[in-house]
Amino acid sequence: MAVVTKEEILKIANLSKLWVSEEELEALTRDMGEIIEFANTINAVSDSAEEFDGIHRLSNVFRPDEVIPSYPREKILKNVDGGEDGYFPVKKRG
Amino acid sequence: MEQKRPGLIRSLQRRLEQKELSCRELTEEYLKAIERDNPALNAYILTTRLAALETAERVDARLAAGEKLLPLEGIPMTLKDNISTDGIETTCCSKILKGYTPIYDASVWGLLKKNNAVLLGKTNMDEFAMGSSSENSCFGGSKNPHNTERVAGGSSGGGASAVAGNLAAYALGSDTGGSIRQPASFCGVVGLKPTYGAVSRYGLIAYASSLDQIGPIAATVEDAAAVFDAISLPDPMDSTCRGKQSAVSGILTGEIEGLRIGVAKEYFDGIKQPEVAAALEKAVRTYEKLGAKIVSFELPILKYALPVYYILACAEATSNLGRYDGIRYGYRTENYKNINEMICKTRSEGFGAEVKRRIMLGNYVLSSGYYDAYYKKAQNLRGTIVKAFQSAFEQCDVILAPTVPMTAFPVGFTGQDQVETYLTDICTVPVNIAGLPGVSVPCGRDGKGLPIGMQLIGNSFREGIILNAAYAFEQRDEYLSECFSKVEMGVKF
């Protein structure tokens, strides 16, 4: 029996905001099935009562919350050719 | 003790200070070598020639004014392409980030830049650091300088290839499940994955935030220690980062009398090549001769480290890679009818196959109905693995293991079977799961002359102990003849 069905793959792809073409679906279902079967091997260990409580001996390093200047808007918008009126542009569609 | 294998950084700095050559000449040597040899290796995906020469001239001016060199000053180096560089394109070797130019520096690069490190360029990697051969790069894979029909490893394959091929004195890579140590092992160089929290992750484009860590790939243990010292500092921009406990460079004595070295059977069970097993066994005997005490124990929980790693890493990746929607930076699809279509098409066209698989696996293990069986279960097992290592470190100071169960794969191997490829990470992922430091050091060669790596694992923030143990191994007479392989490529020293 397949570990994962094509329908499940399509559902997961949708959650992932990814499109899967008809041609890709077959191979992807097979690959994902193998990977999930492999991931499932952890369920062979009997349930441990322990809850994960973070990496041993690590704790957050806190600092005073001080207001400092942030990045200028023009600099941030450089990656979208300067933006439009100070915003990220997206094409207007019907 | 007499230094048999001197550090490259220190010897280059000495030559600069003694005016044997200028920093500009040194930088030009490297740039020339990159131009000549990079087409065969594909280690660099971008060179930063002008900025490198500008920095070199600044260093020369300081030397001319009689200033002493700062740590790592004037040394030509490279950064993995997931480390943000202000004004220099940073793509994670993904089509989805093509054209993206960060507006700030990663903290590690900020620290090195302040010391006038000479950045030669950005190096190749598996897309978003997901892979073991660097062949998942949208620029094509990096080749191994020891044999260009073999891969450099991954995901920091470009950095390891550049260092082994003498195209950079050292490189910074990132290690989420072995991505520094594995390519270092394949390319016959030294790779250090620091303790989680020893080095700032600010500006490292995230793959799996609870596992990612930046570290050096270098020619020698001394070089790796010097780079670690320079980048391991607390950072107000990363609340998980507290920096090193103390400098490690000064404590490399090679004196390891009485050091307890642990050997866990499970690490050796999966070795695929008899030559790898033989080299590792020889390394254990070498340590015994050097005065270390060998302690054997079992770590049966390691059997589950690999699926635990893939579940947790992919779950975190799903969330981290949610930001790529084509709106604020990088690639955006041409034609779309609405915002949802724009995001879906951008992501489907921009991400490569392995990244898509990992995003989907992450969403699968986090989705309703599967969360408890996969994600929560894996988190609990992570706790069990952390505790198993803690009790192991009550019996020993260092754990010795293979870095990879085999030597460098032939080009094209990793595309064939995903699970088979994942299995090759078996010796490296436990360190990331437990947040521990690990270093890979060359310890032999196989019949084809390909390097074999040995991994030394320490307790949290004990980089000094593992680096000193590695140093002791590297400074023996036999090291150069048995473990080190010179590559006739790149800059000639």
Task: Tell me the layout of helices and strands.
The complex is a heterodimer of chains A (94) and B (493).
Chain A: H1 6-15, H2 22-39, H3 73-76
Chain B: H1 8-17, H2 23-41, E1 44-47, H3 49-64, E2 76-80, H4 107-114, E3 118-123, E4 143-144, E5 147-151, H5 157-164, E6 170-174, H6 181-187, E7 190-193, E8 214-218, H7 221-231, E9 260-264, H8 265-269, H9 274-289, E10 293-297, H10 305-320, H11 339-350, H12 353-366, H13 372-395, E11 398-402, H14 418-423, H15 429-434, E12 438-445, E13 451-458, H16 463-474, H17 477-482
Parallel strand pairs in B: 2-3, 2-6, 9-10, 9-11
Antiparallel strand pairs in B: 1-3, 4-5, 6-8, 7-8, 7-12, 11-13, 12-13
Helix pairs in contact in B: 2-3, 5-6, 7-16, 10-12, 10-13
User: What is the global morphology of chain A?
Assistant: flat
How many H/I helices of chain A?
A: 3
Determine the CATH topology of the domain at 6-44 in chain A: Histone, subunit A
Distance between the termini of chain A: 45 Å
Sequence of strands across the biggest β-sheet of chain B: 1-3-2-6-8-7-12-13-11-9-10
**Radius of gyration of chain A, CA atoms, in whole angstroms:** 23 Å
Fourth-tier CATH superfamily name of chain B: Amidase signature (AS) domain
Number of helices of chain B: 17
Structural class per helix/strand content of chain A? mainly alpha
Residues in helix, % of chain B: 25-40%
- Mean pLDDT across every amino acid position of chain A: 86
CATH A-level architecture of the domain at 6-44 in chain A: Orthogonal Bundle
Give the strand tally of chain A. Answer: 0
Order of helices and strands of chain A: HHH
Query: What is the global morphology of chain B?
Result: globular
**What's the average pLDDT of chain B?**
96
